[in-house]
Amino acid sequence: MSLIEITEVRKSFGSNEVLKGINLNVEAGEVVAVIGRSGSGKSTLLRCINGLEQINAGSISVAGQPLLPDDKHLKALRLKVGMIFQQFNLFPHLTAGGNVILSQTVVKKTPKPEAEAMARRMLERVGLAEKFDAYPDELSGGQQQRVAIARALAMQPMALLCDEITSALDPELVGEVLAVVRELASEGMTLMMVTHEMKFARDVCKRVVFMHEGRVHEVGPPQEVFTKPKTEELQRFIGMVGEAG
Amino acid sequence: MTEFTTWDILRNLLLATRWTLVLSLVSFVGGGLLGVLLLFLRIGRARIGRIFVKYYVELFQGTPLLMQLFLAFFGLGLFGIDVPPWLAAGTALILWTAAFLAEIWRGCVEAVVKGQWEASASLGMGYLQQMRWVILPQAFKIAIPPTVGFSVQVIKGTALTSIIGFVELSKAGTVVTNATFEPFTVYGFVALIYFAICWPLSKSSQMLERKLNVAHRNH
Amino acid sequence: MHYQFDFGWVADYYPVFLKGIWITLELTFVATVLGVLVGIACAWARTQGPAWLRPLPIAYIELIRNTPFIIQLFFIFFGLPGLGFSLSGMEAALLAMVVNLGAYSAEIVRAGIQATPRGQFEAGSSLGMNRLQVFRHVVLVPALQRIWPALSSQAIIVMLGSAVVSQIAAEDLTFAANYIQSRTFRAFEAYFISTAIYLLLAIALRYVLAGIGSLIFPRRAVR
Question: What is the ipTM of this complex?
Answer without folding.
Answer: 0.91
